[in-house]
Amino acid sequence: MMKTLIKELPELEKSCAGEVEKLLKEKPGAVLALTAGRTTEGLYALLSAMCRSGELSFREAKIFAVTEYVGGNEADSCRSILKRQLIDNIDLPEGSFFVPEEKEPEKYDALIEAAGGIDLCILGIGINGHIGYNEPATPFDSHTHVQKLTDATHRQYQGGERRLTEYALTMGIKTIVSSRNILLLAAGREKADAVFKMIYGRTDSYIPAAFLQIPLDVTACVDPAAAAKL
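Request: output the structure for the sequence above.
Response:
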């Protein structure tokens, strides 16, 4: 059953950072899947600071990006965002950070499997209930694939610094729910409807995040605004 943690965002970030710290101490060679989003920026800053202070180390870990854009500005790519916010600030060895490739997205799942599978996946949620960039109508058994982004997803980023491309690469829903542990961060009133449907909606492809009701170890970490409809 999905667990729900409702706190202000800084407290949620500390809680999620604590989960990463615990995992890396128990399993230094852990595999993490990370999303590149505004909601996780503070968490990555905290993890970077903890690594600099010696509280945790990524030296034996592997990190897989959940998404990447097809085309577009390199500075706005998920690779670049994750590198700026986290990868370049921690002791992760070169060659231990992976991003899906447009030409052969299906090979990404084989790469994850060869690494031992995802130990911890950290996600955000879209206003239409997407996880990664699995938009509504994405089937449960989907693996890493190219996804056309919806108008709702484009509207979510209007007025922000980042411009979305028409298509994105994303871990599929089956890829994500196969993770051994999942943390989903949601903050802000605009996420309240999606959070409600994620927790109480039917597990069908209309609300992709509702499929997170299926795995055994999932925690929805939401601030009071995002939890307003619960």
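The radius of gyration is 16 Å.
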